Amino acid sequence: MKKISFVIPVYNEEENLPVLYKKLKEIYDQLQQTYNAELLFVNDGSKDNSWQIIKKLSETDSRVKGVLFSRNFGHQMALTAGYDHANGDAVISLDADLQDPPELIQEMIKQWEVGFHIVYARRSSRNDGFFKDLTAFVYYKLLHLVAQVPIPQHVGDFRLLDKSVLTVINQFREQARYLRGMVAWTGFSHTFIDFKRPERIHGTPAYTWSKSIQLAFDGLANFSLFPLRIAAFVGFFVIMTGSLMFAYITFDAFLHGTRYPLFKWLVTVIYIFMGVQFLLMWLLGEYIGRMYDQQKNRPLYIVQEKI
Known about the structure:
Helices cover 52% and strands 18% of the residues. It is built from 10 helices and 8 strands. The chain has 2 domains: 2-224, Alpha-Beta Complex (Spore Coat Polysaccharide Biosynthesis Protein SpsA, Chain A); 226-296. The chain is an alpha/beta fold and 307 residues long. Strands 7-5-6-4-1-2-3-8 form an 8-stranded mixed beta sheet, with helices on both faces. The chain starts with a strand and ends with a strand. It has helices at residues 17-31, 50-60, 75-85, 105-114, 130-146, 163-169, 179-186, 209-223, 226-256, 262-296; strands spanning 2-10, 35-43, 64-69, 90-93, 118-125, 155-162, 190-196, 303-306.
C-alpha cells in the first residue's frame, strides 16, 4: 500500500498536541484500508512538555515518530527535518496549532491520486487581525510581482508533496530557507484547496513579528533581485531630484543674484549621497552575509533524540 507521511513542526504546543493527534488518528484510521501512515513530529526546542507528550503518543501508537532538536532552529528548519526523515509516497505538512484543518487531508489525497504532484491548502480568509491581514495581502502581491518564479499567494506550509517533489526539495540545503518558494520553484503540477483559516485555540503563535519579517525577506531575497534593484530606483530618484535642485539653485543664482554659501551646497549633496551609500551598503551586506552563512556549510539543524 502507498504510505502517507504527516510532518508536524512543534514549538510549545502541549495543549494542542492531544487534540491534533486525535483528529489525525481519526483520519488515518479511515484511510488504513488503502494507505499506510506515519506521524512525524519535529520538536523545535519547545520549552513546555511537548516532547514528553510526543513520547507518550509513540508508546501507544507505533505510527508516531519524533525528532527532537537540541535547540530552537525555527519553523522552516523543523519542516526541513520532517521532510528529511519522511519516507512516504506523499508527505503532508501542517502546523500543530490546529489552524491548518486536518479535515482537508482526505481531499488533498484525492487530488494527489488524480495526478497532481503538489496540493496547496490556500487561505480564503484569515483571523489574524486587520493589520496582519493587510500586511500579508501587500506582501503576497509584492512577491507575486517581483518573484522570478510564480509563487502562489495566500499559501502557507499546509500542503501535500509527492515523493518525486520531496526528492528534489531535499537536495536544497541553503541556510536562508523559504520552502513556499522552493516548492513553487520545482515547477511540478499543482492544484489548490481553499479553506477559511480558523483561530488558534490554545497557545501563542510561534511566528513573532520579527520572525515573520525575516521569513518575508527570505522570500524576496531568495527568489527575486528586487532588493538589489531598489538601490537602482533610489539612485535614479536621487540623481533626478539632485539635478533639479542643482538647476534651480544655478538659475536662481544667475537670474536673481541669490547667493548660496558653498557649505550649503556641499552639505546637501554629501547628506544625500551618504544616505544612498548606507542603503547600498546595507543591501550589499545582506547578500554577502547570506553567502557567508552558506559557505560556512553548517548543518541546518541538530537532532538530539529520535523516537
